[in-house]
Amino acid sequence: MLRFSRFRSLRPNTGFLWLLIAVAAVTALAIRHALQGPQARRSFGGYARIVDGDSLVVAGIEVRLHGIDAPELFQRCSREGREVRCGRDSARALIAMVAGQPVTCEQRDIDRYGRTVALCRAEDVDLGRAQVLAGHAVAYGAYYQDEAMARAARRGLWAGEFIRPREWRDRHRGGAAPQS
């Protein structure tokens, strides 16, 4: 026969139990945050301010369009032997697509500059895909078939000669882009 008289109580220490619950809750939140990380998808929307051919600001969030790389704003290309402002043209094409409509975005990632990388739409138009199809951007991780179609039809950038935006940035890193 067991004697319980030697023990003060059979109840667990309530302070220890609360500490255990707090540690478990903090651990669960940390695991959830780690699993979501920067890849966590969230949706947001509003009216957009266009920065360049693949960047915009929506609801105060700086966004880079997922899957594309557009010429930098001051980047120039050549078409039929003359210089064209392909960076400006790309930005203007994006402005025309948005045309005062609300834009909805779904976050895909965060880039190395802290910008949200997102798939954005105006009405039902995927803005990144539309830029690539029109030849105003090159595929960058997505939309390769659309780029092939734009190239075959000689649309936008593909109607002349250009330096890929990434290469152009590498060449012009460290100095301000010429303005004229």
Automatic annotation (TrEMBL):
InterPro entries given in the database record: SNase_OB-fold_sf, Staphylococal_nuclease_OB-fold
Protein name stated in the entry: Nuclease
Coiled coil: none
Gene3D superfamilies in the cross-refs: 2.40.50.90
TNase-like domain sequence ranges: 41-160
Segments passing through the bilayer: none
Lineage of producing organism: Bacteria, Pseudomonadati, Pseudomonadota, Alphaproteobacteria, Hyphomicrobiales
